[in-house]
Amino acid sequence: MGKHEASLKRTALFDRHQALGARIVPFAGWEMPVQYAGILAEHRTVRTAAGLFDLGHMGQVDVTGPDALKFLQFSTTSDVSTLSPGEAKYGLLPNDDGGVVDDIIVYRYPEGEDGYMICVNASNADRDVDWWNTLRERRRDLDVTIEDVSPRIGMIAIQGPQSEAIVKKITEAPVEDVDYFSWRDGVFAGVDAKVARTGYTGEDGFEFYASNDEIGSIWDALLEAGADEGVAPIGLGARDTLRLEARMPLYGQELGDDISPYEAGLGWAVSLTKGDFVGRDKMEQVKTDGPKRRTVGFNTVGRSGTPRAHSVVEVDGREVGFVTSGAYSPTLEQNIGLALVERDVAGVGKPLQIIVRDKPVEAVQVRTPFYKREQF
Amino acid sequence: MKAPANLKFTKSHEWVLVEDNIVTIGIADYAQQELGDITYLELPEVGASVSAGEPFAVVESVKAAADIYAPLDGEVLERNESAVDSPEVINTSPYGEAWLVKIQVSEPAQVDGLMSATDYDTFAEALAH
């Protein structure tokens, strides 16, 4: 562990993570911090104060040109036509079979700028761009430019109830006016950046996009400005437990090439009424027939080992599915998870048995999200 | 944390306190640090047989589950129920409160194969770099 692996990429903040004492692990082709102070402490920092995340591994793709909107309507599942300049929307990049290549956020550039920026998962960035290029070949009637801008863009997030108070200390920009799922330009610690009110933790917070050369100045300023509020850097370990408590999907677990959005519980991110798009008819068929599998939340009953991704799920000795994500929840102090199961066994309050180390662990299906912050 | 001089160690990071033919077993500081926040501990029942080098218990951290290996052959005499109820003591007191089991040793000569505390410190130090 911690040894340099030549084939792995590093973000602009790598040296800072080392100086902060992070444990570094390979993740999606990058050397990333998995924890600093420890996953439980970091998780609680985000729920009670604010945490800083390096998201430099995530990908950004610009889609511009006169037909950018038409192309995105064709190549993503959500209805992007409703976005005003400066607004963003969650969506999916579909395949031809009604499955999902990636989950994405489409940001329409603010007033005065052309086109859209799409934020994609690190693990999928290359194949997303390949797929969009394939789709562009199918739609030669559209005048659109697709550019992977990830190499020059850095990304960090601050998440937690103290986020706004901390960000206000490093900018004149009226960040209190940035609505959920929108973004705007601003100068932060002297750096031109875009700040979005988005995140992956279930807390209020912001994500910053700035040039790779300068993003470190924003990171440093937020760490310093937030010292009184208790800000701390947060690794991928807590990022995963935070997003799971908030029931946010992780590609490769809740989402995949062979999982319908309707099975994943993400039908809300699919607009069947906006016109044709890749995989639309297959998705509509699943919706009409009713998905054969459903993604359900569960917690274990009593003290037990933790069900984790790929654990087999049974009901009365019959295999009915598998766990997509499972973890010890630092907030609830019990094991929680999501499982993709046959629809007959799905239902809040119904039991599941999950195989952990060859033995069944008793679990009960519960409503999700597991954690919801108090609205301000 | 330096390994206490009265303990013996395995390469799989268990510690052993030898008192005649009864030994107390726990996991080393290095191992709890590598695992991170420990959330669950599963121990064998009293009376269970354990075999040197075979998994006999499991610890889980937020991120992963890890086997604990029996350092010696023997039979479980006692389990630390308070460590089962509060597994975080493995993080806070790996050489103290967080002993796991006491074992009646059936092959006392196996103790000679364990590492001394100073040898273990050298071993763990090399792994950390």
Can you describe this structure?
The complex is a heterodimer of chains A (376) and B (129). By secondary structure, chain A is α+β, with helices and mostly antiparallel strands. Among the domains of chain A are: 14-56 and 152-245, Probable tRNA modification gtpase trme, domain 1 (Gyrase A, domain 2), CATH 3.30.1360; 292-366, Elongation Factor Tu (Ef-tu), domain 3. Chain A has 8 helices and 19 strands. Chain A has helices spanning 14-19, 39-48, 68-75, 125-138, 163-168, 215-225, 236-245, 280-289; strands at residues 23-27, 30-35, 51-54, 59-64, 88-94, 100-108, 116-120, 145-148, 153-159, 183-188, 191-196, 205-211, 232-233, 293-300, 312-315, 318-329, 334-342, 351-356, 359-366. In chain A, the strands form 4 sheets. In chain A, strands 10-11-12-9-3-13 form a 6-stranded mixed sheet. A 6-stranded antiparallel barrel of chain A has the order 14-17-16-15-18-19. In chain A, α2 (39-48) crosses α7 (236-245). Chain A is globular and about 60 Å long. In chain A, 49% of the residues are buried. The model of chain A has no long low-confidence stretch (mean pLDDT 97). The relative contact order of chain B is 0.26. In chain B, a hairpin with a 4-residue loop joins β1 (8-9) and β2. The longest helix of chain B has 12 residues, at 117-128. Chain B is globular. Chain B has one domain (8-109): Beta Barrel (OB fold (Dihydrolipoamide Acetyltransferase, E2P)). Chain B has 4 helices and 9 strands, in the order βββαβββββααβα. The model of chain B has no long low-confidence stretch (mean pLDDT 96). Chain B has a 6-stranded antiparallel sheet with strand order 1-2-3-9-8-5. A 3-stranded antiparallel sheet of chain B has the order 4-6-7. By secondary structure, chain B is an alpha+beta fold. The interface between A and B is medium-sized, with 18 and 13 residues.
